[in-house]
Specification:
single chain; about 325 residues; alpha/beta; 8-stranded mixed beta sheet; 8 helices; 8 strands; globular; binds ligand XP7
Amino acid sequence: AGPAREPGQNRPGSTSRMPEDSRARLSPQGIAYKDLPHIANADGQHLFCRYWKPQASPRALAFVAHGAGEHCGRYDELAQMLTGLNFFVFAHDHVGHGQSEGDRMVVSDFQVFIRDSLQHIDLVKKEHPGLPIYIFGHSMGGAISILTVSERPSDFAGLVLISPLILPNPQSATSFKVFAAKVLNHLLPSFSLGSIDPNIISRNKEEVEAYVTDPLVYHGGMKVSFAMQLLNASARVGKALPDISLPVLLMHGTDDQLCDIKGSYHLMETVPSQEKILKVYDKAYHVLHKELPEVSSAVFREIETWLAEKIVTATGAGGI
Ligand SMILES: O=C1CC[C@@H](CCC(=O)N2CCC(COc3ccc(F)cc3Cl)CC2)N1
């Protein structure tokens, strides 16, 4: 070993993390998981969790699945609104996202996102037996939600989808790009396809700025291997739709350039659900819950109204 070093001086090239076996596993931001709400997934990766508890005892549960590159903290406003309806809201940062472990926006198989969501849902259901559970998904989180529901057809009381990933956008996934991605995936899986242009996520400049400056958002390029998982996901979603029969509330902007609104029209034509509502927001971009005020307030109102009438009937606290 080289000359004695002052304590705390790391050997050059060594990371500043403490040894793995000291059980002080640190989040990507350097915070010890023992000081963070978290679960360990089936691969032993720590997933950062968030919980929003209502004042009164909860009447229903809501799980939120966030989209690619972002994190569950971006659903604070939505969760606050739901706690106002006495929902117990919970979420986690998917593997490779936000404050969870895993290489940034990398997943070995899209199924990991569904497996981890079911693990978290089962954990919370145990703590709140008998409560109806709703699942929310935005964009890639919409694909996760659909596939999670399709694995547990009778476990969920409703599905809320905000601009879900159902069909890849024809621009971002032209047949040539798909072919190139498949070829590249064998040759250069870590090749970057470039990052999302922040200006197409929303027309709300403040929300674009918040996204660009959010340290928990991944702004790097999308790896070919991740794009392949997204293609894998949209193919699986297409197969799962005919088995989705729970109540669905679906919202999409006509000017969404990241997830084609045609996917939502396809869902409406395909799912056998008795209750399925699609709200289309004219000229709106991808992130409807962080769009221009008139759009996002309409989206929140829509969700609140849809749920309020459901949990009233569900808990039988309705009229005489
Ligand atoms: O608040 C926020 C901030 C971020 C945003 C969520 C983003 C998200 O989840 N997307 C959008 C991009 C989409 C790209 O899809 C593909 C790309 C290449 C490819 F070859 C095949 C596919 Cl399918 C996947 C889903 N919401």
